[in-house]
Amino acid sequence: MQRGTKNNMVETNNALWSLQMAASALRRYAPAKSKWHYTDGLLFKAIHGLSEQTDQERYRKHVLDYLDLHVTKSGDIRTYRLDEYNLDQINPGKLLFPAHRLTGAEKYRRALELLRDQLRSHPRTKQGAYWHKAIYPYQTWLDGIYMALPFLAEYASSFGEDATFDDVVFQIKDIESKTRDEQTGLLFHAYDESRQQRWAEQDTGRSPNFWSRAIGWYVMAIVDVLDFLPGEQQRRDLVVILERTLKAISRVQDEETGLWWQVLNQGDRPGNYFEASGTAMFVYSMAKGVRLRYLDKQWLPVARRGFDGILKHLITVNDSGLLDLHGVCAGAGLGGEPYRDGSFEYYVSEPVVNNDLHGVGAFLLAAIEIEFAKLKKN
User: Fold this and answer.
1) How far apart are CA 180 and CA 184, in angstroms?
2) Which of 199, 206, 212, 146 is nearest to 181 (CA)?
3) Is 117 a catalytic residue?
4) Fewest beta carbons less than 10 Å away: which of 30, 132, 205, 213?
């Protein structure tokens, strides 16, 4: 298991890191193996971000090509099943908004309505929060906040569903109230209202550890929801949550490298390692928050330390001239079969891989925020 760092910050040419990583990721991406999957959605959300920053048609084409592999002429989505009630399957739908605005194609609007219909009937906890999936009854996960709520907020903004903003804000606030640790300020990965899961603490229903990527999903969700939220009080409430969560995150940033650990508050424990996707998600959230003035400028140096840490310790260039991103947790969850108990040992035992889309997509989002904000300032 990787623990240390790679002291090999590379300089390939004068191109921005975002452009280099996008080129590397798109070279590796195999359309024949493409899926309607949240990680593919994450990658192409970043590619869409590049299209907005560079105004290059090729990036727009990549996004549309991805969507057209999965969205039929009638607006159905191949492999998607509404009755699975899986929040992960909402995430690629965020790409449908710009695709519909750009092309006016009715199939994208129909696909948007299909996903919106899922959220209308999606099962909820007794207090009104979405279950993460139908197969995880009465469970709310930090991951699901990112998967569904920026989509729901953009839908409400695009199609005049003003009452829906209350639901969006409620769910962000509800899961924080259920998972926030009073001592550290960090958020536990998930909450089980039923207390039926072996991973759930009986008094609180919370899972037992602070997984970096789970909290990364959550803070990214907040800064993305704020793009669409109109109510000033609601916006202030979410910024308060964002700031206090980032303060907790900043306290466990590694002083030497600027990176964050897989299990955030146990960096000195054997088996723990610096994890690329969580680090990049924190960088993105801080840098975007500063750019849009949700956050004070004091957060930008924290974000830059994290970004520089990724460049120095987790990126190399291979023999083909492509960027390799190291130290990405391939995936982690709770429950299921074989059973995932949320222990420290579980989180550090999941495979650590290179160039996984969790990390590549998050790195691209972070790089766009760091690099283009700096260019515009200059």
Assistant:
1) 8
2) 206
3) no
4) 30
